[in-house]
């Protein structure tokens, strides 16, 4: 679920913290992807017509494999370096939310049976999707596929995804719509948590309290308090404790035994992974024989299509190894005095004639350079030795 109403709240109150990006603009970037969310989307969309889904000869569903295979190839062809992150054991606080989801699936199963009996095609389409659940077998299938493709996988508690609570966990940059099909032609939406805090004029602690008030997966919210009201109250009182102390109790009823403090602690101190083996990430060449065996022999994929797809993966891996353009240019001190021009403070030096095969580019910074360094996943306690550079960028201020 994420955080209720947070996207619209940010669009209305912190628009500068959101920006649309072209899919191709993430060439060379390491991107952490919520595997479970992606698998769920594949199971709902790929090859599904009513209750019918893609299956192999044994009748086992393969929609998740088809979706993961084709979508990952698209990322690789765009020069990205995807890292798929799978859910670990959910925290105790999420058990209530998971129980609600279980009940909703059970209700949807009953509604689906009624729709099938009545021949209601629209109802069948609607309720069949609500019965979908990502199983451990789906996860294991996709892990195997990704490893055969040479794409790393890790298992942690939380990661940037379609769920807005990635921002609450402190992900410096958060992308939505990256895994949407190309046919939708939807730009990637990038959120930057530092700009969110600046635009909303909140501290990170206050932003976490705001998200809890909006509604999250780990505790109930206060009935009658939506996103806009939550923002107003946080700005006025500064914390949930102060809100509880000053709010009109007759108008806003505080849930009995409300575990907001535990939810806050979970957002600030999430479960982490420190196993070096799980943190080792390498993008390797695809296992051609393994992919043919797994997809064609075991799951009934078309041999020619898989073979062509493997060639795409190999070509994409070579492409992504080229690196981003800015990695070839390093700012160096400009010791010479450049002629001043009105309205211009930047001088790009030309290559010096030399016998060396390489040349350097001198750049005079317009103002203080803005450098965004390693962006670590919020749930990965990697330490300085194992920092995870999700994306690296050097802004020269041109």
UniProtKB/TrEMBL annotation:
It comes from Dillenia turbinata. It is found in: Nucleus, Nucleolus; Nucleus, Nucleoplasm; Mitochondrion. Belongs to the XPG/RAD2 endonuclease family. FEN1 subfamily. This is Flap endonuclease 1. Residues 29-282 form the 5'-3' exonuclease domain. SUPFAM superfamilies: 5' to 3' exonuclease, C-terminal subdomain, PIN domain-like. One of its GO terms (molecular function) is 5'-3' exonuclease activity. Gene3D superfamilies: 5' to 3' exonuclease, C-terminal subdomain, 5'-nuclease. Pfam families: XPG_I (PF00867), XPG_N (PF00752). GO terms for biological process: base-excision repair; DNA replication, removal of RNA primer. Residues 1-108 form the XPG N-terminal domain. PANTHER family: FLAP ENDONUCLEASE 1 (PTHR11081:SF9), FLAP ENDONUCLEASE FAMILY MEMBER (PTHR11081).
């Amino acid at each position: 679920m994420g955080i209720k109403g947070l996207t619209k709240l940010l669009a209305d109150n912190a628009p500068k913290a959101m920006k649309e990006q072209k899919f191709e603009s993430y060439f060379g970037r390491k991107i952490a992807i919520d595997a479970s969310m992606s698998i769920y989307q594949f199971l709902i969309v790929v090859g599904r017509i009513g209750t019918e889904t893609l299956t192999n000869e044994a009748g086992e569903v393969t929609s998740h494999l088809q979706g993961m295979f084709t979508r990952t190839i698209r990322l690789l062809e765009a020069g990205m370096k995807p890292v798929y992150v799978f859910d670990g054991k959910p925290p105790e606080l999420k058990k209530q939310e998971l129980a609600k989801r279980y009940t909703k699936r059970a209700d949807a199963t009953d509604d689906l049976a009624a729709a099938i009996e009545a021949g209601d095609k629209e109802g069948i389409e609607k309720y069949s999707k609500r019965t979908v659940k990502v199983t451990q077998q789906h996860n294991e299938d996709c892990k195997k596929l990704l490893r055969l493709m040479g794409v790393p996988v890790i298992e942690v508690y939380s990661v940037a995804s379609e769920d807005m609570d990635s921002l609450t966990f402190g992900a410096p940059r958060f992308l939505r719509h990256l895994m949407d099909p190309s046919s939708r032609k939807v730009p990637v939406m990038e959120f930057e948590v530092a700009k969110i805090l600046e635009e909303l004029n909140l501290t990170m602690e206050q932003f976490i309290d705001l998200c809890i008030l909006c509604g999250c997966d780990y505790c109930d919210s206060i009935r009658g308090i939506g996103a806009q009201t939550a923002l107003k109250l946080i700005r006025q009182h500064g914390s949930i404790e102060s809100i509880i102390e000053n709010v009109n109790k007759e108008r806003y009823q505080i849930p009995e035994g409300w575990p907001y403090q535990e939810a806050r602690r979970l957002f600030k101190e999430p479960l982490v992974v420190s196993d070096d083996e799980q943190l080792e990430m390498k993008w390797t060449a695809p296992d051609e024989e393994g992919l043919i065996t797994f997809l064609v022999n075991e799951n009934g994929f078309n041999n020619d299509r898989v073979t062509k797809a493997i060639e795409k993966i190999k070509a994409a891996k070579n492409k992504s190894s080229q690196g981003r353009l800015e990695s070839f240019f390093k700012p160096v001190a400009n010791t010479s005095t450049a002629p001043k021009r009105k309205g211009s403070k930047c001088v790009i030096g030309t290559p010096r004639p030399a016998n060396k095969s390489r040349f350097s580019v001198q750049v005079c910074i317009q103002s203080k350079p803005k450098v965004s360094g390693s962006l670590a996943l919020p749930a990965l306690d990697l330490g300085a030795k194992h920092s995870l550079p999700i994306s690296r960028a050097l802004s020269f201020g041109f």
